[in-house]
# Entry
Amino acid sequence: MIPVASLELQNFALSTDEQHIAWLKIDCAGSAVNRLSADVLQELARVLDYLNSQVPNGLVIYSGKPAGFIAGADIDEFAELDNAQKGQALVTRGWRLFNKLAKLPYPTLALIQGHCLGGGLELALACRYRLVVDVPDTRLALPEVILGIFPGWGGMMRLPRLIGPAAAIDLMLSGKAVDARKAVSLGLADARVPTRLAMQAAAQHVLSGKPARKARGIPALLNQTWLRPLVARQVSKQIDRRDPYHHYLAPRAILDVWAKHNGNALKAPELIERLTQSDTAQNLLRVFHLQERLKSIGKRTTAADIARLHVVGAGVMGGDIAALCALKGMTVTLQDQDRDRIAQAQGRAAVLFQRRLKDRRLIQAALDRLIPDPEGHGVPHADLVLEAIFENIDAKQALYAALEPRLKPGAILATNTSSLSLTELGRSLLQPDRLVGIHFFNPVARMPLVEVVESTRLAPDVRSAAYAFVHQIGKLPLPVKDSPGFLVNAVLAPYMLEAMRCVDEGLSPATVDKAMEQFGMPMGPLELADTVGLDIARDAGMQLSADTPLPTCLKQHLDHQELGRKSGQGFYTWKDGKARKPDAATVPPELAERLIRPLIAKTREQVHIGVVSDEDLADAGVIFGTGFAPFLGGPLHYKAAQKQHS
# Structure
């Protein structure tokens, strides 16, 4: 018998129990998470070769990391794919190894607790069985499309076989994650198990002799070769609706590999080359790293979690912030002079909870955590008091004067102001160092970025607590200095202003917006202005550039009380929350460049004056705060790439 020690494993531990089940623990050295780097895959190959000579009754693969099962491939290795051969080699390595795992003569089981992403899920799919531990952190996904690539290690073949092509393609094209409950209902996992019984359940299941799951009925039929073109045509139409200007290759490549090559990317080497060598993939990889950098800002702090939050102002922003925090487990008291606004906020919260939580008990628990508090009784108990009233400096200062004496020792006072100076807001406070800006974007539940606004007097512990709070609610904190408009609103204002000037010059709003949609923006600047509210756009613009006259088109809408989406009329007519757009005319050449130029210039200026510390953070803020086309890598990166190519 060959001793296990001879394998010299650095990232795995292998043991065998009395039932002759092999237990393979993955615990990547020197890392908080498990990633399937080239070295890790080589070790796994050695383990499988070893087990061929010491055949067990079953194999269970599980994680030694508290963070989760496997976070996917090693992202840094993607950056090294500087030629087609390296891309082909990376796909080949995982494809062959997981095929080897799938063909083992003994039963295999992946015991999944926490995240199971990308290559980690492809490894699990190559096992005969999958059990998911029923904890909130368990999430399964194939998010490669978000990086501009595809799941080339067998995911495009095995997932449609397992759950049918409709559900599989939806998961692969969206990159969305499913929890333990959803994984079982889809057929992606065999069963949910509680933490305390996970190892026992894995041992029983791997020796159960049960047949491997697979799609049945219509889902299985749709995976037949002769029906795939029909499915592909329907999905292709959906992709074209979401990405009409073909900015992203990966969704179409995933569909193509499944429909024409049975999910085997090695049969489409030209697609591997186009994806791995594309600027889009490199830029999306850059965006991933920017996102990780923002996440790390929240993770670095040792500040305690916020247990109780008090929000003053139950309008759209304040009410939705309160709902999000209740969703995330905080006890939230919501104060407003208008009880109807509180009731409306509770109604929106109920919709959010139903959409996110599904389970009736969890929904009710979240509703119970959101407490109407018109008199402000929650202030003395709150760890954080967040003000989200209208943008008027006198009103905010008067509110702070009433709130500050009631704050408990160590509590933090925060404002959701979008443009007012924190230095001015805190001028009459006894402890201005405990006032911090925590600026959310609308819609609160969807927008990932939160600006943490730091005045020169901000106390270090308050800064750390603000970062921790943003991280606690699953958002990305962006540190910004106290300056008009901070980063995001400061760069949006000249962009929207230029769009309105184009309307004054005779271009239709639909034509202006189409130019930027072709450029890659999720919506054009005028639809964005309507969404924000034309009165808000005016006020922000006046804060940032009081000397600039209002565009004629904006003044006309405001004179007629046409405020955009919230009033039903602005640059567009709005119905059921959607803009009714007339057909656009032909977009003039260079219009997109004209519109984006002031946004880029203002982004560079904000870096220069120190609002953000560097260009990467500026790009991150504009991408996650405005939706700037991710495939371009950020406004400053885009401009630098233009210069390189010119």
Notes: The mean pLDDT is 94. The chain is about 50% helix and 15% strand. Residues 240 and 390 are 40 Å apart (CA to CA). The two ends are 64 Å apart (CA to CA).
